[in-house]
């Protein structure tokens, strides 16, 4: 006979935190969000900790090398999507590991025969006012010149004017040579009053740009997540089908943590994959997703360094509608966290858990942490920022970014569905969508982090571990949900979201 769980499964929005005593020392400046991501023995330090409890989802529309460097700079981690060729994914990992703070790959590039209109279009699209002009219009082509807003005057110049007629040509540029250090690049910037210094190799091919403002902002990121060689820490998604080839390539590229990306991780496929990786490589690996005690313990037994929790809660996810599997995200975290605690008490081994999917409001993150998650994984949240891999588009009067599920026809990532045999599902588990464009990662993260720290002060907790130990969490009734938003008033700004 089937086993029944008659308690309804719950989502984050059905809970609130009850404040604990706030001491005078409970200030946001005293709160640490440092959190383990890989398992460790009692009394020992985890091999890898995050400085903020955020990871970006293993998705084409979320986590590429640009997102990974930007998030690591802020103290979190990205898992670069695995639904691409092994070579392309390894190249992205390599780019993150080789990234030198302050040296950026040029994001605005055009050819000399293109026009002023093309410059303006590109500026409108990505907001950058410095455009590298290369022979082939790519970020690594032969550098022929630079265009900034000082090179044209809209009231005078025709829009079809070719770029080569007004760019600052290479012969007049001050440039840096490949291999130079950041202090050397900055000396050139300051001595010559530049905003941007192109770095080229011996054949004049563009390698990086160094911006004056980036140097300053890098100094503002003391939480950057670095390995012992001062390279950013990066994760990558793998699947249970081609891991024999994919994992060696990712390890050779320098990946720090792998995660098996799957909608349902309670499978022999995952068990075998984790075991094989652990036997053959000295690399960390997370597994998932699971939503209950049994699934968690099974993956821990396989050797997983962390376990990812959540089925069907993702914003673009239609798994529950299509297959009828899943569980409310809060219920899943609560049960898995209990199993993790018991396992810790019995064995002295702490296995971090990641709450994946379904974070809608910032306070959901705090709730997930209070319920026992050590970090969260988010897709929709990060897809909205400049640093995600998709283009910013204008739809009606709004700027949006595209965001599609890994189980959608667009991503065609059938490898994440462990049904055995050859992949090739005939139905989708995700949708293709837009999300509102929200600006830069850093400005949004700063706001979210302020909210989390502020709530933790209300709860009298100066660390995530303390929050997990002391949080008091209450279920709310459907009627009190109404009370929670602005109510019984006429809002002046009808766009107010309540977040
Ligand atoms: P979000 O933060 O609510 O957008 O959820 C992101 C999470 O949704 C990812 O980390 C995955 O676990 C999950 N996900 C990604 N693509 C799909 C899909 O196509 N179907 C179901 N779940 C997905």
TrEMBL record:
<keyword id="KW-0332">GMP biosynthesis</keyword>
<feature type="binding site">
    <location>
        <begin position="261"/>
        <end position="263"/>
    </location>
    <ligand>
        <name>NAD(+)</name>
    </ligand>
</feature>
<feature type="active site" description="Thioimidate intermediate">
    <location>
        <position position="317"/>
    </location>
</feature>
<keyword id="KW-0129">CBS domain</keyword>
<dbReference type="GO" id="GO:0046872">
    <property type="term" value="F:metal ion binding"/>
</dbReference>
<feature type="binding site" description="in other chain">
    <location>
        <position position="317"/>
    </location>
    <ligand>
        <name>K(+)</name>
    </ligand>
</feature>
<feature type="binding site">
    <location>
        <begin position="310"/>
        <end position="312"/>
    </location>
    <ligand>
        <name>NAD(+)</name>
    </ligand>
</feature>
<dbReference type="Pfam" id="PF00571">
    <property type="entry name" value="CBS"/>
</dbReference>
<dbReference type="InterPro" id="IPR005990">
    <property type="entry name" value="IMP_DH"/>
</dbReference>
<keyword id="KW-0658">Purine biosynthesis</keyword>
<feature type="binding site" description="in other chain">
    <location>
        <position position="312"/>
    </location>
    <ligand>
        <name>K(+)</name>
    </ligand>
</feature>
<dbReference type="Pfam" id="PF00478">
    <property type="entry name" value="IMPDH"/>
</dbReference>
<dbReference type="InterPro" id="IPR000644">
    <property type="entry name" value="CBS_dom"/>
</dbReference>
<dbReference type="GO" id="GO:0003938">
    <property type="term" value="F:IMP dehydrogenase activity"/>
</dbReference>
<keyword id="KW-0630">Potassium</keyword>
<feature type="domain" description="CBS">
    <location>
        <begin position="92"/>
        <end position="166"/>
    </location>
</feature>
<keyword id="KW-0520">NAD</keyword>
<keyword id="KW-0560">Oxidoreductase</keyword>
<dbReference type="GO" id="GO:0006183">
    <property type="term" value="P:GTP biosynthetic process"/>
</dbReference>
<dbReference type="InterPro" id="IPR046342">
    <property type="entry name" value="CBS_dom_sf"/>
</dbReference>
<feature type="binding site" description="in other chain">
    <location>
        <position position="314"/>
    </location>
    <ligand>
        <name>K(+)</name>
    </ligand>
</feature>
<dbReference type="InterPro" id="IPR015875">
    <property type="entry name" value="IMP_DH/GMP_Rdtase_CS"/>
</dbReference>
<protein>
    <submittedName>
        <fullName>IMP dehydrogenase</fullName>
        <ecNumber>1.1.1.205</ecNumber>
    </submittedName>
</protein>
<dbReference type="InterPro" id="IPR001093">
    <property type="entry name" value="IMP_DH_GMPRt"/>
</dbReference>
<dbReference type="InterPro" id="IPR013785">
    <property type="entry name" value="Aldolase_TIM"/>
</dbReference>
<dbReference type="GO" id="GO:0006177">
    <property type="term" value="P:GMP biosynthetic process"/>
</dbReference>
<keyword id="KW-0479">Metal-binding</keyword>
<feature type="active site" description="Proton acceptor">
    <location>
        <position position="416"/>
    </location>
</feature>
<comment type="similarity">
    <text>Belongs to the IMPDH/GMPR family.</text>
</comment>
<feature type="domain" description="CBS">
    <location>
        <begin position="167"/>
        <end position="228"/>
    </location>
</feature>
